[in-house]
Amino acid sequence: MISVAAFVTMLSTVLTVTDAYPRVISELKDPEKDKPEDKKEKWKIYRISIFIIPVLSLSILYFLSGSFTILVDFAAGLSFLSAPFLAWFNYKLVTGKQMLKKHRPGKSYRIFSLICFALLVVFNFVYLYYTFAP
C-alpha cells in the first residue's frame, strides 16, 4: 500500500513538473502580452520546451547514473550555484515597480538582503574554487 502511494505521488509530481516547467518558460518571453499572435508564439515555445526538457533530464540521468555520488553532487552543486540568481530575481521582484510601495521592504531590510546576496556570491566563488582548483 505504501509503495503504491509513493509511486502515485512521484508519478503525479513528474507529470506536474513536465507540464508546469514548459508553461513557465513560455511565459518568460512576454508575460504581459495576451494577443492571439503572442499566444501562438508562447504555445510554440511550450511545445518545444515540453520536448527538450525531458530529453535533457533523461540525458543527465543517463550520463550520471553510473555513479549516484556524481549525480547527487551535480544536483547539489547546481542548486547551490543557482541560489544567487534566484535571490537576485526575488530581490528585483519585491523592490520593483510592479510591487506596491507599501508592500516593498524598508531600507534596512533591503541593505540586509544585499549583504546576504553578496555572501551568497562569495560562498559560490569559494565553492567553485574548492571544487575546481588543482
List the helices and strands in order: HHHH
Q: What kind of sheet is the major sheet?
A: none
Strand content: under 5%
Residue share in helices? over 70%
Distance between the termini: 50 Å
Q: How would you classify the helix and strand content by structural class?
A: mainly alpha
- Put simply, the count of helices is 4
Low-confidence stretches: none
How many distinct beta strands? 0
Rounded mean pLDDT is 86
Instruction: Indicate the radius of gyration in whole angstroms.
Output: 20 Å
Shape: extended
Structure, briefly:
The protein contains four helices and no strands. 2% of the residues are buried.
Q: Can you characterise this structure?
A:
With 134 residues, the protein is mainly α. The model has no long low-confidence stretch (mean pLDDT 86). The chain has four helices and no strands. Helix 1 (2-28) crosses helix 2 and helix 3 packs antiparallel against helix 4 (107-132). It is 82% helix and 0% strand. It has helices spanning 2-28, 36-64, 68-95, 107-132.
Task: Map the helices and strands.
Elements (H helix, E strand, L loop, with lengths): L1 H27 L7 H29 L3 H28 L11 H26 L2
Helix pairs in contact: 1-2, 3-4
